[in-house]
Each structure stands twice: as structure tokens, then as C-alpha cells.
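hey can u check if this looks right to u? its 290 residues, i copy pasted from the old doc so theres a chance i mangled smth
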Amino acid sequence: MKTAFVTGAAMGQGLMLAQKLSGRGWRVFAGVLPGADTSALAADPKITIVPQDVSDTESVRRSAEIVKQAIGDGGLDLLLNVAGVANVATGVVEGIPLDDLPKVFEINTFGQVRTVQFFLPMLRQAKPPSRILNFGSGAVLANPPIAGAYNMSKHAVHGLTLTLRHELAAFGIQVTSIWPGGVKTNMTANAHANTLGVWDAMDPYIAATYGPHLKEQTTKVLPDMLEKYGSTADYVTDQVLKIVGLRKLKPSYLVGKDVALMPLLRRVLSDSSFEGFIRRTFKIPSYVAK
């Protein structure tokens, strides 16, 4: 029986991945934030619930010890680094609440580093190719406005992936970044109201400065696109499990119906042309000399 550890498994994509892996015969260790509702996981005998706060080093260390004790010398075949946050330290870069910025990186970026560090000994013990899938975001290509902290944290995740691909090649451990497009989950629910809230919370001067150029784009255009073109978590997790089964992993995979054409566009367009495409899509205005 193959073994997998999934971070952020209490809800959303993490929960679905844990359940689907179990349904396919895997022994799954589900990392869940202490105190989270685990009722959706508890009834499955092939899923072991493991308390884990990815922003806390000791918590991640303890979670690895629990898994190690359970699997012994058998090794871990798969690590899915799913846990993340989005609606923290939001706003245009000039107005990001700096006190909130570290939290985004502690969870989205450093949380993945912690998990990789403590789980790698078990991945090396498994018969190659064991695998690490680090969840990034399609934001590394689109970089939507008022999500600068989130965008930066996901760019850093891909830097982690690219480094690990070199460092772990000799051990037969394959590593990739998963870049979902817009996914309809708890994290993205109520996007219209949430983005309006971001503008309401901004410093009035910052909001007045950037609002004429970006408010409609971020409170209507982008949420409308998510509702119309975004993928369900069920669809995205099915695509992720197809990637898990591939013989050889590429450095990254765009996943989602709304980003299906992105690989082609990146091949045929220059960086400047692709940036122009993104701005036209998001209806971001350009500077007009007066």
C-alpha cells in the first residue's frame, strides 16, 4: 500500500485529495490544523488524522514523528504540500498591512519548507520515485493586482521546487509545482464581497489613488471571471492525481479549465506580449500622458 501525507487536509483541495487517494487504495496521513473539524476524515480507516500547523516548526516536527512511527522503515511515497492562505495582507503593494505580511509567507512558503525538511528522510526511504507536489498558483503567471503578498509567496514556492529538483535528483525523488487557476473553494467564496472589503480596509488615500484604475477590475472583473471560468475543486484534484501518476514530472503544471491555454500563450508570446494579454484580460488601464 502506497503512503501519502497531505497538508491542509481539513477542507478544500487538501480534503478532497486525501479522500480520493484513500479511495484509490493509498494509506493517507492527513495534516490538519489543531482544532479543525475532522468529521469528513474520521470515518475512513485508511486515513490517519495528524495534527499539524505548518506555520509552527515544532508542530511540523511532531507531525513527522507521528507519521514515522506509523510507517516505520517503509518510507513515504508522496508529499502533497497543499496548505495555504489567500485573504491575508491583501491590497495594493503601497498599502499592504506590513504586520500581516509575515503570516502569508509563514503558511504558504515557509510552511512548505518546514514540511519538506521533516518529511524528506521518509521520502528518501521509499522506493523511487517518491514525489513531492508543492502547491503554488496560476498567480505566478497572472500576478493579479491587490494580491501581491499571495503572488510573492507562490513565486517563492516555485523557487523551492526548482531547487529541490536539483538537490533530490540523485535520490530519485521527483518534485513539481502545481499551479491551479481559479478554483471555487472556501478560500475563494464570496469573492465580490471579499474584494470590496479589501478596498474598504485600505488607507483612504491609497484607496482614492488606486481605486479609479483598479477597484472595478478587482471587485467585479476578476470575481466575475472566477465565477464564470473557474474550476471546481473536484475537477482540479482529479487533474492533480493524474499528475501524481505520471512517470516523469515536469517542473510545473497549470491545472484548471481557465488556464488551459496558458502554456500555449507562454510559448508563442514574448514576456511583454503576455503581460499585455493579462492586462487586457483583467481590463487594467495603461498610462496615458497628459
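The chain has a mean pLDDT of 96.
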